[in-house]
Amino acid sequence: MEVIPSINEENLEGIKEKFKIVEKIGAEWAQFDFSDGTFGERKVFINPEDFKEINSKIKIEIDFMVQEPEKKILPWLLTGKIKRAIFHLETLSDIELIKRICLENGVEPGISILFSTGNEMIFPFLKEFNFFQVLAVSPGFSGQNFKQETIEKIKFLRENISDDKIIEVDGGINEETARSAKEAGVNILVSSSFIFNNPDPFFAYKKLSEI
Predict the structure, then answer these.
(1) Domain map of the chain by residue range?
(2) Strand, coil or helix: what is 152?
């Protein structure tokens, strides 16, 4: 199972330290959560220009947890650090625009749906994207419990998209929820607390990878 460690630090130095851990445990990707407090309470105070200081070979996906990301994403893409950008269906006013901005800058676009959002909201876009995320917790801080409604959301996506399309699940991941998510059809697990709060992050990462 592919596992992507999620970095939720609120300052640049903390982010750099987490990237060092991600490199040490041997992960290929890291997720960086950017939030300005408009979608969930959490705020991450970092300038896109500062993000250029991240000196890492790790591939980066950015989880853009903000309202109206169409107006805020371009400076992040222009850093040249982002390989994949994930946008939350509940925050978008122009899905085609955000997709075009990503593709024009060589970044893979992904769309996310909250565990509690109706399937009818994402159904029109199932053919428009190759990468889907299910957010298994409420927008905000890490360390929340996995919402069981997430499993049905994953099953819905897997039943309605082709096998070559990717489903990622983010939030509340541990060994038990990871197994349930895998059985439902996910390809990628995103984990923050389970990995970084473990005294041995490599051990935690390996446990999830072996599921």
Answers:
(1) 2-209
(2) helix
Does the pLDDT value for residue 8 go beyond 80? Answer: yes
207 near 173, Cβ under 8 Å?
no
Contact 46, 58 (CB under 8 A): no
SS3 content of the chain, % helix, strand, coil (to 5): 40, 25, 40
Kind and range of the H or E element at 126?
none
pTM exceeds 0.85 for this model? yes
Cα–Cα dist 183/34, whole Å? 29
Token readout for 25 is 């445990």
Fold of the CATH domain 2-209: TIM Barrel (3.20.20)
14-66: pLDDT as tens digits: 999 999 999 999 999 999 988 887 787 777 768 899 888 888 889 999 999 88
DSSP state of 140: S
